[in-house]
Design goal:
Blueprint lengths: L1 E3 L3 H4 L9 H12 L5 E3 L2 H9 L5 E3 L16 H8 L6 E6 L12 H6 L3 E6 L5 H7 L5 E5 L3 H10 L2 E4 L8 H8 L4 E4 L14 E4 L4 H13 L1 H16 L3 H24 L3
Parallel strand pairs: 1-2, 2-3, 4-5, 4-7, 5-6, 7-8, 8-9
Helix pairs in contact: 8-10
């Protein structure tokens, strides 16, 4: 069994190793095709892997802990923390790895376009110090890595989830945000449309368009009725992502892989 979660070949461009992209794609294809079953977490990723010549692909539906990530986790204390002491301001939230491929610096433009807004960045990664320097002097709080109840409270205490990455194979942070009742604004690319339903529980913008990104943020910040409606639908969508069903699917794939091995060893394949 193998499962595919990260487009390592695409990431080579973000880390100065673009010359290795084709070799990495070949390596990925070779190793995954040694597996009896290859799992992927979105239809977009499955289509990409098929185009790369990877075989025996199965879709593994992802779940979310909808009891942990819940709108009821919101507190004024966490609004204080996320806003740097300005709990009445609108709070934009990013959760994820602080890495070049996440395009986090793009979030800075939202603070200029929406003056009564704060940004909370949750996570850690190789460019954390660099980002802290670039966001210095802005209404931005870096919380570092959060887990468990603290992470759930951070999600629920914000007003809007912003996710600028264009390289996601799924985006678990977006699913956790939806479960917490947060509308999501993300790039219209890859697997993101499989998580965010446009004009239902979030807004999508064209990748690379700062204008569309800012317009989407301002639209939801200015329309409280829409934001609340999107939040309710976000929660409802997340409740349909059940870990029990996800685990049952995974167990079925292991059984399929075992059967594949038995048939191969008996000469029936």
């Amino acid at each position: 069994m193998a499962s595919y979660h990260t487009n390592v070949a695409a990431y080579t461009r973000f880390y100065g190793f673009g010359f290795m992209e084709n070799a990495t794609r070949s390596w990925t294809r070779t190793w995954h095709n040694r597996a009896r079953i290859n799992l992927c977490t979105s239809e977009a990723t499955r289509d990409y892997l098929l185009s790369e010549g990877i075989k025996r692909l199965r879709l593994w539906p992802q779940g979310v802990d909808a009891r942990l990530f819940h709108p009821s986790r919101a507190t004024r204390e966490w609004r204080e923390k996320l806003s740097g002491g300005r709990p009445e301001a609108r709070i934009l939230l990013y959760v994820g790895r602080l890495a070049p491929e996440k395009d986090i610096e793009r979030l800075k433009i939202t603070l200029s376009a929406a003056p009564d807004t704060c940004l909370a960045i949750v996570g850690k990664g190789p460019i954390q110090k660099e980002l802290e320097r670039k966001f210095a002097g802005t209404r931005t709080v870096f919380t570092g890595l959060l887990t468990g109840d603290d992470l759930a409270a951070a999600y629920a205490s914000a007003d809007l989830f912003v996710f600028p990455s264009t390289t996601e194979t799924l985006g678990m942070a977006m699913i956790e945000a939806l479960a917490s009742g947060l509308p999501v604004i993300a790039a219209r690319t890859g697997a993101i449309h499989e998580v965010v339903s446009e004009n239902v529980n979030g807004l999508l913008y064209e990748p690379g368009s700062d204008e569309e990104f800012v317009a989407a943020v301002c639209r939801l910040l200015e329309d409280e009725t829409m934001r609340r409606s999107f939040g309710l639908r976000a929660r409802a969508a997340a409740e349909e992502r059940d870990w029990k069903a996800s685990t049952a699917a995974l167990r079925g794939y292991y059984e399929e892989a075992l059967a594949f091995g038995s048939e191969a060893s008996s000469g029936r394949l």
